[in-house]
Write a structure and sequence with these properties.
With about 550 residues, the chain is an all-alpha fold.
Amino acid sequence: MRVTTLLVGSILLFMVGSSAARTTRTPNAFRPLSAADVEHALKSAVPNARMAALVKKYGVDFELTGPLKQELRSAGASDALILQIGRSRAPIPIDESSVKLIGHSPTGHSIGAHAHLSASTPRAHAQPPAKELLSQADKYRLGSGVVRNEAKAAQLYRKAADMGNAEAETRFAEALFDGRGVARDPAESLAWLEKAARQGNARGECDLGVMLTSGLDTAQDRAKGFGYLQAASRFGDGYAEDNLGQFEESGLISDPSSSEAYMHYLKASEMGSAWGAYNVARMHEHGIGVYKNPTEALRWYMKVVSIEDPDLPGQWSDLRSEAGAIASANFRIGDMYAVGNGVPKDTHEAERWYKRGVDMESAGARAGWLMAQVYLANAYLQAKGVPLAYGEAMHWMRKAAENGYRQAQVNLGSMYRDGQGTPQNYGEAMYWYREAADQGSAVAEWMIGRLYFHGSGVNRDYTEAATWFRRAAEAGIPVAQSDLGMMYYHGYGVSKDLATARAWLQKAAARGHAPAKEMLPKLDAAGDSVTANTSADVDLSSRPARLQ
């Protein structure tokens, strides 16, 4: 994994936050960075000349003062790197009221006849009635000054959408996708998002990109979805920027790059994405692309939990899951206090943070958000903020699984496989894994392969195991790539082929899979004593498996 630096990225975002007079920003953009952040970031930086090119590529605006140059030198940056940084400048800000773009976006639709819309702003030329309807709908959705009424909100969004308001088209599509105030209809949701995207609505493009890259209730088209995410990120959608970071980190589009991923996460956090800031914290906590620094990680987790947004009640959706980042950050802070990582060990403080996360998840779960139900079930399984309670965990996990939530189906299958809160039942495990796999879960495909490999609840069948491992491996699941490589190494279910074994193990190693890294140097001399790895299952509790 290539080493990168927080040094430049932190300075960029700090300087962007301080140059509002020169740069147009979304009015409600979250600004998490301060001078203190720059100071702490410099201490954990890994100066790297590659960052200068990334700064220019991502076009973040900033300027270097004398003191900042000195800080850079103190942190280890060369004069040549500082010179390169100083020459980097952002593109000219877009004035949505007058700009006319020429050409085509990566999504393939013409953008010559309209200005691109921000993630939170309706079309500038929308008729006043549509704007008024949109404003009323927002109030009913959020319960702002009126009794919250999602059905009324959906009705008003539909009226404004019928008038061609792109923001209303996106909001109505989100209501259709989640079944909020209207019957759930993912196909109709997709159609409305396509309409909004054709008008250049950044939020609509992001939602459409998420649906396509993840295969959420639609045929997966990762390349097309990636194009929509790129278009949305360029016009200020932080959630899209975070998704691009996930692609870079996991290597689902090209070779994995922690440097590129980190830049995306930094930009996403500055744009207002809770997941962007969470991922910055995560990379500091685990030393991914930056020096491992639990103190800096804690600082970023604290920033995530401090985000206040009236839109959060509607952010538990797979299309917009920012609430999950805030709940997860509370648990990560709790974990750090529980073991004394970056802070003095304090079990009472840990429980306080766990309780904050549980309260947030409970509110979301009881409001019917399926993702929140999965998170709450995991809290009961881990006894964080609540007592260990397999029955409660099974209740919430089953509730979400029976409503078609694929991550819950995967987790419920694992509960049956391991006998958590229920007698062990491989048949039930296979049933739920297949339900999730039918919805495009690559993690479920890998787990089905494991059941066939071990003969758990089915006749052992290496050929069938290899088939399922291949599906998951091609979708970018590192442990599946490693397992498939070992199948080729031994000739289990496939013809023995050391070259193919090495190729799959290299893919897994490039994505950070430790057993694959350990196996590669032993590949030629290991002999038949090596067995397929038995790595622990993927932890699905920390983040929605949007790209799986």
